[in-house]
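Thread amino acids onto this structure.
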């Protein structure tokens, strides 16, 4: 209620003739300082947005492939879009990558292999390898792969920093695939490779170094081998370092692993001639020693054969006989007879189709079983002469020299045969 008490005060203070201003004062002055409240009618009320809790799992995202011009494809092609998942920190699926890359036992038990890089993954897909999970850092990486091969594949987008942690490469390529372990009987190798294939096989015996084995497989594919056989004792052919050194050779020619020597003849024709590579220097070999059967006359195989001879002697000796001294045992082991093989230099005429070459590792050398197989097939020892003072060549280098020399000889014989037919 307004009270005109200021009028009386004004009259007393200012006197007559003074203009008096009447001020109306309302109670509850503090209420005027509050902000006005907007009144909304029921039909104008906005519905309050309710925040949905974030799901524990990641959301699916749709990837639409791009055409060669770089633009989005039309609606008919969008029906073929792929869904991919975005990984979150702590995703258990990411831990499998390191496990598969580091553990041979895990790869063999679960039948998995790990491939990194666009070229290697494309070679595997074209050969018919089954891709299960694909990790990629950017969507552009998917454009580099054949879209029709990615149907049904578990696609997971991860941070590039995570791929760098997994990768053994100096510069990670941002794409890693987990494949089912390829079966050579179900693979479809390139037609060009099959047309240029020769009756030439390679047997790897005790190749322990991943880089050497990968290089050997690459040379075998380049030379036109029809198959590569790996005995037990070789490094795993599906190890990441072997795959990287092989540069796609695993998906160009059949690579059959973990074979016992007893079953190797099953993968060769009955008329195959088996030759073994040896690093005994030819300029040091006397003519009388070229057909020698002493273990010390074999280059790469000498140490292995000496050990085998000692074990055989100790096994044959009876328990009631007195133990021989080390000197006597060494003398007897040097007299043990081993498979007798003729010796040829690598450039001589030795490649009679079909032919197989056995290459041994630099540490353990060739096994006795390889020499026995070569002897039973009428094979020979192949020597690559080197200058005095050089111990031997790298096993991958020696294999490359012998494979391409074998290719040259086989092609030359094939050309002569065609001329005779004409």
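Threaded sequence (422 positions):
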């Amino acid at each position: 209620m307004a009270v005109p008490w200021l009028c009386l005060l004004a009259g007393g203070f200012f006197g007559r003739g003074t203009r008096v201003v009447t001020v109306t004062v309302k109670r509850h002055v503090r209420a005027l300082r509050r902000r006005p409240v907007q009144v909304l009618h029921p039909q104008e009320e906005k519905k309050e947005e309710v925040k949905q809790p974030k799901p524990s799992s990641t959301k699916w995202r749709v990837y639409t492939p791009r055409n060669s011009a770089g633009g989005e494809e039309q609606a008919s092609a969008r029906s073929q879009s792929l869904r991919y998942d975005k990984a979150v920190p702590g995703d258990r699926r990411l831990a499998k990558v390191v496990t598969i890359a580091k553990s041979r036992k895990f790869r063999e038990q679960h039948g998995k292999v790990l491939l990194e890089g666009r070229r290697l993954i494309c070679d595997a897909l074209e050969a018919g390898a089954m891709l299960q999970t694909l990790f990629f850092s950017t969507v552009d990486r998917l454009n580099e792969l054949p879209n029709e091969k990615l149907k049904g594949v578990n696609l997971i987008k991860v941070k590039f920093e995570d791929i760098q942690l997994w990768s053994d490469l100096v510069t990670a390529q941002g794409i890693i695939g987990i494949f089912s372990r390829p079966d050579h009987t179900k693979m479809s190798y390139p037609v060009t490779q099959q047309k240029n294939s020769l009756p030439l096989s390679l047997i790897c015996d005790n190749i322990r170094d991943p880089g050497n084995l990968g290089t050997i497989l690459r040379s075998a594919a380049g030379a036109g081998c029809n198959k590569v056989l790996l005995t037990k004792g070789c490094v795993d052919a599906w190890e990441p370092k072997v795959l990287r050194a092989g540069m796609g050779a695993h998906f160009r020619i059949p690579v059959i692993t973990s074979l016992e020597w007893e079953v190797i003849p099953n993968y060769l024709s009955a008329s195959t001639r088996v030759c073994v590579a040896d690093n005994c220097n030819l300029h040091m070999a006397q003519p009388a020693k070229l057909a020698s059967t002493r273990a010390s006359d074999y280059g790469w195989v000498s140490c292995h054969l000496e050990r085998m001879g000692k074990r055989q002697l100790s096994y044959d000796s009876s328990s009631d006989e007195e133990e021989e001294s080390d000197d006597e045992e060494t003398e007897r082991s040097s007299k043990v007879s081993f498979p007798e093989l003729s010796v040829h230099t690598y450039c001589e005429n030795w490649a009679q189709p079909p032919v197989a070459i056995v290459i041994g590792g630099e540490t353990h050398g060739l096994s006795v079983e390889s020499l026995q197989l070569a002897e039973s097939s009428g094979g020979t020892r192949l020597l690559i002469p080197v200058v005095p003072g050089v111990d031997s060549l790298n096993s991958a280098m020696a294999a490359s020299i012998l494979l391409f020399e074998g290719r040259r000889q086989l092609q030359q014989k094939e050309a002569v045969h065609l001329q005779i037919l004409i």
